Amino acid sequence: MSLEAKRTPELEELLIDAEADDEVVQHRRPVVNRPWLLLLGLILVALNLRPALSSMAPLLADVSSSLGLSAARAGLLTTLPVLCLGLFAPMAPILARRFGAERVVLGILLTLAAGILLRSAFGEVGLFAGSLVAGASIGIIGVLLPGIVKRDFARQAGAMTGVYTMALCLGAALAAGATVPLSHYFGDRWTFGLGFWIVPALVAALFWWPQVGQKQSAHQVAYQVKGLLRDPLAWQVTLYMGLQSSLAYIVFGWLPSILIGRGLSATEAGLALSGSIIVQLFSSLAAPWLATRGKDQRLAIVVVMLLTLGGLFGCLYAPLDGLWGWAILLGLGQGGTFSLALTLIVLRSRDSHVAANLSSMAQGIGYTLASAGPLAVGLIHDWTGGWAATGWVFAVLGLGAVVAGLGAGRAKYVGVSSEAV
């Protein structure tokens, strides 16, 4: 059956609205002189949104041993950056209105580089302070990217979201797999393994610089969006973002420790995490494209979440002989869950200004909620002395994400619009 035959009256109404919204977006959207350069810049920026998070997990035992961190402080170290993602996300639209999104992205890339340097070179105080700065920087940049995609690539929003999500996953995979070998290369010094990731941040800033020089008319008029906090659909998008992110940051923060506890070496555990994230490259690109082919995204959300839970339970409970199969299953699921979460922000918004504010809400509140997951896993491990009981955390978060996703995946817009001020 063709897609045309599947159109419901509600979908027809949305398509008519979308055509009208496209005309509005065309008036608001600035002219991009070199879209290929913007695309390259977006990819390089996205590459830097996970290394500061995924590079810590394989080295967590070494860092804790070197600095004498307790299990509670090690748990806080995995939770702090995720909490900062949420707490600082609401600053993004405020800064963008004041300085322009492109300038903010450039400045925050430099702040991210400073945070990476701080946490790798200044002992325990620098470790926690740098993690805070890095998490805050990633939170601000991550909010701005969906709005930029909605503005400059409105007709290719799903595909473009998949592209930069794929780049984001690649950055996470590289950091998870390369940080321990880099530390060994530099004389078994974890500081060099963590500090290396300042390099791609500076490279991204260099390639993003041309975007700052473009005169963008969209920044000459300020827009406000009111009523998101009272919109049920906006809350469903937010809860889906937060719950699936909580599972993702449990994987980033604790999966290597879980696997080490089951008998793997630090290098083997880091490679398993890296391999799982590499698989996300494929599903993060494919999931938004496939999900936008149907009438809505609900089926896609259920499928990717079931894959995620299957992979998590396999890594936690199944024999290690089949670990790579479970890691691949986990990667296929999590690449899809995150890219769909970002796609929902774009698809549920009428224009780029609504997308930026919905992105701020979904990531601000969502990541604050997500930070409870890694903390809960650390506390349960301390209480029980093992990892088996953490499966309950996976189950509760996964079920909640499915329920929220069934609401967020409906083919509707949030019931707000942007207004010039």
UniProtKB/TrEMBL annotation:
Output this protein's name: MFS transporter
Species of the source = Pseudomonas gorinensis
